[in-house]
Write a structure and sequence with these properties.
Length: about 230
């Protein structure tokens, strides 16, 4: 029995085995991301790129928050060893555990961004002064970056919602590297959507989530060190 265990450990510890395990994890997480976002992804792809569809776009994006949260959880907690691969089980555990907390953050963030986007798209009809454009854009960027931080935090830690929001806003300033990295990642995602389509972005979902996780590592490590027992 010990010889068998030793062989399994050696089989799962080599560089090729680890690389294969990571690819397997990314593929499984990608499939589960597509599955859990499918109810919103299908109508989102079919919607025309018109400002009048902005509220519908927000509704289609509702499943994205819980799905990304579960993917963050799975990629963080799954060990990359061929002898112990359970990315699907870890994904669903993260989905169930994080769903209430994620929705308390994701839904208000989408509402804020929808109001800002609609106000900018229909500025004349909404009687929004031209000098309000820059502040509204800055608020939108702040909400987006804060929501990204909050999504990472609530996916990996068991804090109250108000504490998650405080930490998310706190690290926008305290961790400028994380903020800039997240902004660059979101800009890349927007560029992919603009050049390609929402479907192309969805197909790269697990890679983008992994990039978000790697970008947020300094924040995650600081929270673990300073704010958890």
């Amino acid at each position: 029995m010990s010889d068998t265990s030793q062989v399994r450990r050696q089989f799962g510890d080599g560089p090729l085995s680890r690389a294969a395990a990571r690819i397997h994890i990314l593929l499984v997480v990608e499939l589960l991301l597509l599955l859990t976002t499918l109810p919103g992804l299908v109508p989102l792809v079919l919607l025309g790129r018109d400002a009048s569809n902005l509220p519908l776009v927000a509704a289609c994006l509702l499943p994205v928050g819980p799905a990304v949260s579960a993917a963050l959880y799975a990629l963080r907690h799954q060990r990359p060893e061929l002898t112990d691969l359970r990315p699907a089980a870890v994904f669903w555990r993260g989905y169930r555990t994080n769903l209430p907390g994620v929705l308390r953050i994701w839904v208000p963030a989408l509402l804020w961004l929808t109001v800002i986007a609609v106000s900018l798209a229909h500025r004349v009809a909404a009687a929004v002064p031209s000098w309000w454009v820059a502040p509204l854009v800055l608020v939108g960027v702040g909400v987006t970056l804060g929501a990204a931080n909050a999504l990472v935090i609530t996916s990996l830690f068991a804090f109250r919602t108000r504490d998650v929001l405080r930490l998310a806003l706190h690290f926008l300033v305290r961790a400028p590297g994380v903020t800039v990295g997240t902004a660059a990642l979101l800009a890349a995602a927007a560029g992919i959507t603009a050049v390609g389509s929402d479907a192309v972005l969805a197909m790269l979902g697990s890679v983008l989530v992994l990039a978000l996780l790697r970008t947020a590592e300094p924040m995650v490590d600081t929270i673990r060190k300073d704010f958890t027992a």
